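G., before I forget:
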Amino acid sequence: MIYLDYHATTPCDPRVVEAMLPWLTERFANPHSDSHAAGRQAGEAMAQAIDSIAATIHAPASSLLVTSGATESINLAMRGVLTHPRNRRNHMVVCSTEHPAVLDVAADLQRSGVDVTHVGVHPQGDGDNPLAGTIDLDVLANAITPDTALVNVMLVNNETGVIQPIAEVARIAHAHDALVHCDITQAIGRIPINVSELGIDLVSASAHKFYGPKGIGFLVAGGGERRVRVRPQIVGGGQQQGLRSGTMNPAAIIAMETAIRLAAAAAEPQSEESTRIAGLRDHFWQILNGSIEGLRLNGPPLSEGVWRVPGNLNLHLREIEGETWMAATPGVAFSSGSACSSVNPSASHVLRAMGLSESQARRSVRFGMGRFTTIQEIETAGDELIAAWKRFQLS
Ligand SMILES: Cc1ncc(COP(=O)(O)O)c(C=O)c1O
């Protein structure tokens, strides 16, 4: 199986596994047991790991809450702000291409009386629109009102790899004293991240997207210029300042720390990893585009300096549905939309929001290349995909 689905999840880096293992076996103590040395050792190692995680994204460690992943972080951020007893505002903005983890929480809050405005993105258009898929900042500026508590815009889209202009989003939201929540899940390891420079108030992330284990992530809530109050969604033992109760998992937190440190180095603009992955992605596009007639790129062009991460390729075919192409190429793992919403067979809401027709969205696929993808894999996958496409031309 050639794995080209790095947006859905990534394998654990062996260095991450190595860092994690001792904390599962000989150093297993409860990190909250400060009555004995073993517990204190686990607690201290965990605290150091949290400091380091926060430092890699330039966020204050005191505002970082460890969660089970981005879905939980997003729930805590959105529900936490809107339902906090001291919050007097009842309006929220979401970008229409957000992950379902954001859109579904917004829909749920809306059912309980919160006003929600969806802000669209720049269309794909006919040609190579460099802004395709990025949020329309003029519409955003008009959508925010004095009642807006929170603006939710992700940093990198999980389907198209589009990078959103978050610093601009924050400037617009802050002019109205609204807070900004940014889902950075797909950005870590792909682009450099500086939370304090971007001016974001709340940040959600999940370790399994950057070569860490599944079931662990974090939320940064505040610590910048604006006061952020979140109402806890999980109560119990009062861990993490009572904002997210439950015994913490040192092994997973230490793993996440190793993963994010490696990811931050890999995300540097001219790093060996990001240059190599961008090169593989471009090579793959050339292979497919050279043999398959009528292929079209979804999202901004692939050239350097555009609003798109390396390693992402989203495209649509002229005749065949993505699902059909996938079924005909069982040796390659890729996705016909957002893998995270693959339980939902409807056409991608992200591509539809960019103006693609229902049929174009159904003819779309997403490839994701990452740290362990090789040129041989790219070339073999290309051959298999082209052969499958040719079989449909003959039939
Ligand atoms: C952008 C984005 N946000 C949130 C999530 C949810 O992450 P998790 O399932 O780890 O909670 C995902 C992936 O599934 C994602 O790609």
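Residues 69-71, 99, 101, 154, 158, 183, 185-186, 206, 208, 340 surround pyridoxal-5'-phosphate (CB under 6 Å). The chain has a mean pLDDT of 95.

More on Monday.
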